[in-house]
Amino acid sequence: MNFLRGFISVLFATFCILPASPLQAQATNIAATPPMGWNSWNHFHNKVDDATIRAQAEAMVSSGMRDAGYTYINIDDTWEGERDSNGVIQTNSKFPDMKALADLFGAMR
After folding, report:
1. pLDDT, tens only, 9-23
2. What is the pTM of this model?
3. What's the gap between Cα 61 and its chain centre?
4. Residue predicted with more confidence, 19 or 66
5. Average pLDDT of 84-102?
6. What distance in Å separates the CA atoms of residue 3 and residue 18, rounded to the nearest whole number?
7. pLDDT class for 109, splitting at 50, 70, 90?
8. Position 27 pLDDT exceeds 80
9. What are the phi and psi torsion angles at 50 (to 5°)?
10. How far is CA 12 from the centre of its chain?
C-alpha cells in the first residue's frame, strides 16, 4: 500500500511539473536573441568621450547592426567624475550631458 501511495505521489508530481516547463518556454518570445551591443572598452579603453559614443551609436544604426538586434551601448569606464554631496557619482567633463546621450540612444532603438 505504501508503494502504491508513493508511486501515485511521484506520478502526480511528474504530471504537475514536466508539462509546465516545455509549454512555458514555447509560450513566450522572451530573449529571442541574446542581449547584443557594443562596449567602448574593447576598442577605445579610456580614450572615450561623448562624441565618440554618439558616433558609434550612429554607426550601429547606419551599418544595420541595430536592425540585426544590437541594441545596447555600454560606456564601460572613464565616464565617471566626482561624487556629489549625496554620494551620487557625477559624470566628468568628457560627458557633459549624460541624460541627453541616453535620450539619443532611446530614440535610436
Report:
1. 544 444 555 555 555
2. 0.66
3. 17
4. 66
5. 94
6. 22
7. confident
8. no
9. -55, -45
10. 39
Q: Which amino acid is at 87?
A: G
Report long-range pairs for 32-35 (Cβ below 8 Å, ≥24 apart): 33/69, 35/71, 35/72
**Rounded Cα gap, residues 50 and 61, in angstroms:** 17
Q: Using CA atoms, how far apart are residues 55 and 101, in angstroms rounded to an integer?
A: 11
Q: For 79, phi and psi rounded to 5 degrees?
A: -95, -20
Is 90 within 8 Å of 83 (Cβ atoms)? yes
Per-residue model confidence (pLDDT) at position 32: 75
Other C-beta atoms lying within 10 Å of the C-beta of residue 100: 11
Q: Which three cell numbers stand for residue 65?
A: 547592426
Q: How far apart are CA 92 and CA 99, in angstroms?
A: 13
Q: How far apart are CA 52 and CA 42, in angstroms?
A: 13
